[in-house]
Design a protein that fits this description.
The complex is a heterodimer of chains A (189) and B (52). Chain A is mostly helical. Chain A has a single domain (16-188), classed as Cytochrome c oxidase, subunit III, four-helix bundle (Four Helix Bundle (Hemerythrin (Met), subunit A)). Chain A contains 5 helices and no strands. Chain A has helices spanning 14-42, 59-82, 87-118, 126-158, 163-188. In chain A, helix 4 runs antiparallel to helix 5. The termini of chain A are far apart. Chain B has helices at residues 5-8, 19-51. Chain B has one domain. Chain B is elongated. Chain B is mainly alpha-helical. Chain B has 2 helices and no strands. In chain B, 6% of the residues are buried. The chains are: A mainly alpha (189), B mainly alpha (52). At the A-B interface, helix 1 of A face helix 2 of B.
Chain lengths: 189, 52
């Protein structure tokens, strides 16, 4: 019996299909959070959001941080293009994607510390609760994705990384990167 | 029921408050109801195109 079917090259790797299904569930998870946030904004007393007395979110600084995260996504895309000519040519781009991803999380951490000092907490208002829940859930995904990107860096350097693993990891990072502008537009603006 | 929630009384929470609140409830109901269908159908279509 033949080891590979004629259309084996067109088959979707299990890891990629699994990641797609996982991302679909994640889209629904974040949609639920954003839906609840949208309704909370629309039904707030007085129609003013953020509620009076609550700190304003750092829109400009976060816009810069958004650009850093988008750059990370671009670098990973370039890494995938370069990987076609050999993993050694993609390593620098992958390292750049990891570094900019870490920079995004660190800047978010600095922002959180500043907001906590200004009095925005999970208990201070619905504004604070939704902010930390939605942005925190995204930050958790970013940290996990960065850990996975770092984990694939070493087998990529050795040349032993499975292409399907790289593809699945890329999908997860693209999801984290592309989700953020949506969160920024809904939560910060 | 999605098109005439007031007549069907399909969403009691949507009928309270001002028109903006009702519109928000209605919009989010449409988004959350249609999103899973769109996602599953979109992936199904993409897989079908990939293998055809």
């Amino acid at each position: 019996m033949s080891a590979s079917a004629p259309d084996a090259g067109k088959r979707l790797p299990n890891s990629v299909l699994g990641m797609i299904i996982f991302i679909v569930t994640e889209i629904m998870f974040f949609s639920g959070l954003m839906s609840a946030h949208t309704i909370a904004r629309a039904t707030v007393l007085g129609g003013v959001w953020p509620p009076a007395g609550q700190p304003r979110l750092p829109v400009e600084r976060t816009a810069f941080n958004t650009a850093i995260l988008l750059l990370s996504g671009v670098l990973l895309f370039l890494a995938s293009r370069r990987a076609r000519d050999g993993y050694d040519k993609a390593l620098a781009y992958l390292a750049g994607a990891i570094a900019t991803g870490i920079a995004f999380v660190l800047l978010q951490g600095v922002e959180w510390v500043a907001l906590l000092r200004e009095g925005l907490t999970m208990q201070s208002s619905a504004h604070g609760a939704f902010f930390y829940l939605i942005v925190g859930a995204h930050a958790l995904h970013a940290v996990v994705a960065i850990a996975v990107l770092t984990a694939i860096y070493f087998p990529m350097r050795r040349g032993t990384l499975a292409p399907s693993t790289f593809a699945a990891t890329q999908l997860f990072w693209y999801f984290v990167v592309l989700l953020w502008p949506v969160i920024y537009l809904r939560v910060y603006l | 029921m999605s098109l005439i929630p007031a007549a069907a009384w399909a969403c009691p929470a949507c009928m309270v408050g001002d028109p903006k609140t009702a519109a928000t409830y209605f919009g989010m109901t449409v988004v959350m109801s249609s999103l899973p269908i769109l996602l599953v159908c979109g992936i199904g279509y993409w897989l079908w195109r990939r293998h055809s």
